[in-house]
Amino acid sequence: MFSKKQETRKIDREQRELIEYAQYRVKQKKNLFRHFVVFLAGAVLLIILNKFLDFGSDFRPGQVDWFVWAILIWFFLFLIHFLNVFLLGSFMNKKWEHDQIDKLVNKQKAKIAKLQEQVDREHPLPKQNTFISRPDKPLNS
């Protein structure tokens, strides 16, 4: 209990990968939440700039206030971020990558085995003789 020697735990490769992936996903979700908060604050700021401070009130592309376009574009970027985190992040994750790598490796192994069979069939190795000469004994004895 009071020993200075601490027991070290060894984490195997799979556990480490799971921990790293979980940390990565938490970081992604945290950044998405930050993006959402900044988006809301920015949208409110743009509305205040236009409506209350009269900034750019004469600029109306398409007969719509400029801040509406800015908020729509920002919302579109946030939507892309959201889809990347929740849809693509869960669809094309580490497990998916490992599965794809395993599929490709298995295909390559199958091709190599097929080529090896073809080589063995077309160029068989010579059969070995049952007679083995021993260097320590002469052949004629």
Automatic annotation (TrEMBL):
The chain crosses the membrane at residues 32-50, 66-88. InterPro entries: 2TM_dom. The keyword Transmembrane applies. The keyword Transmembrane applies. Keywords: Membrane, Transmembrane, Transmembrane helix. It holds the Pfam family 2TM. This is 2TM domain-containing protein. It comes from Leeuwenhoekiella aestuarii.
